[in-house]
Amino acid sequence: MAGTLYGVGVGPGDPDLITLKTYKLFQKADVIITPTGKMGKPSVAYRIAKPHLPENSQLLEMDFPMISLSEERDVLEKKWEENAAIIHQLIEEDKIVVFLTLGDPMVFSTYSYIMEYLLEHDIKIETVSGVTSFCNLAAQINIPLTQGEESLGIVSMTQPEEEIRSILDAHQNIIVMKISANSVWMAEELEARGLDQSFVLVSNIGTEDQKITKNIEDLKGKIPYLSTLLIKKNYPLG
Amino acid sequence: MAGTLYGVGVGPGDPDLITLKTYKLFQKADVIITPTGKMGKPSVAYRIAKPHLPENSQLLEMDFPMISLSEERDVLEKKWEENAAIIHQLIEEDKIVVFLTLGDPMVFSTYSYIMEYLLEHDIKIETVSGVTSFCNLAAQINIPLTQGEESLGIVSMTQPEEEIRSILDAHQNIIVMKISANSVWMAEELEARGLDQSFVLVSNIGTEDQKITKNIEDLKGKIPYLSTLLIKKNYPLG
Q: Do B127 and A107 touch (CB under 8 A)?
């Protein structure tokens, strides 16, 4: 079989939320690529995949600095290009390379940048979808993301405030990723719109430290880095 | 084990895109619930699940009329309530009931209404996420849904036009579900915004009849029912 890059989503955290397709790819992969772990721990994506990887799997850690895309794009681009070149070399050697992504590879992932570099060359790339963190959040609290003739907006709290405001205007249902970046601003915005009882904040989902709150005061306090906000304008949140 | 309702997403079409968790639930389910098929064919959700179901699986088909939510909500509500009562009875009999949903159970699914009725009673309900159709679309064409400091809007073409317009304004990336409901209107809207080369239309994804087009004239013509539109304002679509 010729060398191929598979970008796979390992889902939001529960190892059993990976797909059968990804499970089968793990069994035949030559190299598994994952971001370098932080503070001595393996990456979250690797920890999710690990129970399903054969014992002799060859792991390759790649460094993707956690810096701001808008402020240091040139540093990041250099790193993407370097890492893409390493993968390119592996593909040339006819390796089956599996790149792990938390959640889904097409939603806010580093894989998507690497993919762009590699698509410019004539190599085989297949992206394998995964379960997104926001679908899992809704499943955990049994509250639908969107129904019938409503819509859903997905926004990152690192976007410009004016963009976030128009997304808050446009949808009945909104998911705010990276809410810890500016949760006080969002709390005030919700109060100003009479939506201070129309949200659920979920932190450290699926872990021992999971916390679910509907209290606006919690949103104004210090909240964990791994937190996501679901806003529902017309839904009884109980 | 006490009776439990599991609402599971079977993903967008490829049977190998179900999760390991759903696969394991299939092996221990007492009853598998799926919508009644149309025109003599089993439902799409059942066709996806079938390769993974044990031979002696007990199937229960439920009728969910394909009528307009805004125009005939009372007819639909009566049907949801009837079907929820049947499931409630099964749970009381300590059955493990698995309700199949195309894609993810929390994104535009009938399961979410059934879940709402059953949450009012004191029974165990667990929702198991699946891969959404829009993530799969992006994977098939290797184009990211959203990256970095951008956002994503997900809208159904059956929503009011004014709502769709503000969603087109608010996001750099937009997924339009059920685009066949009014694709000519959307084509004109894209032209008026100078976005006539900023979209990909994917029809019958993952089937023999799959078609991918970036031509605005195709969007103005008759398009298949199973079509989804991805709009990307700032991305080289080639």
A: no
What DSSP element (H or E) covers B99?
strand B96-101
Q: Is B37 helix (H, G, I), strand (E, B) or coil?
A: coil
How many angstroms from the chain centroid is the CA of residue A114?
15
Q: Is the sign of the CA dihedral B216, B217, B220, B226 positive or negative?
A: negative
Q: How far apart are CA A138 and CA A181, in angstroms?
A: 21
Predicted-complex ipTM score:
0.96
Q: Are A108 and B147 in contact (CB under 8 A)?
A: yes
CA distance A233 to B172: 23
B1 confidence band (pLDDT: 50, 70, 90): low
**Distance from the first to the final alpha carbon of chain B:** 54
Count CB neighbours of B159 within 10 A: 21
Q: Does A145 sit within 8 Å of B107, measured CB to CB?
A: yes
How far is the C-alpha of A234 from the C-alpha of A226, rounded, in Å? 26
Report helix, strand or coil for A216.
helix
Cβ distance A159 to B170 less than 8 Å, yes or no, reads no
Could you tell me if B106 and B112 are in contact, meaning their C-beta atoms sit under 8 angstroms apart?
A: yes
Residue B137 has pLDDT above 80, yes or no: yes
As a whole number of angstroms, the distance between CA B115 and CA B149 comes to 34
- pLDDT beyond 80 at B40: no
Chain B residues close to A166, C-beta within 8 Å? 166, 169-170
Shortest CA distance from A149: residue in chain B: B159
Residue-range domains of chain B with CATH = 4-128 (3.40.1010.10), 133-232 (3.30.950.10)
pLDDT band at A33 (very low <50, low <70, confident <90, very high): very high
Could you tell me the sign of the dihedral formed by the alpha carbons of A233, B173, A116, B140, in that order?
positive
Whole-model pTM: value is: 0.96
Query: Taking CB atoms and an 8 Å limit, are B151 and A159 in contact across chains?
Result: yes
CB contacts of A70 in chain B (<8 Å) are 148-149
pLDDT at A38 over 80: no
- Residue B81 DSSP label: H
- What's the gap in Å between the CA of A218 and the closest CA on chain B? 25
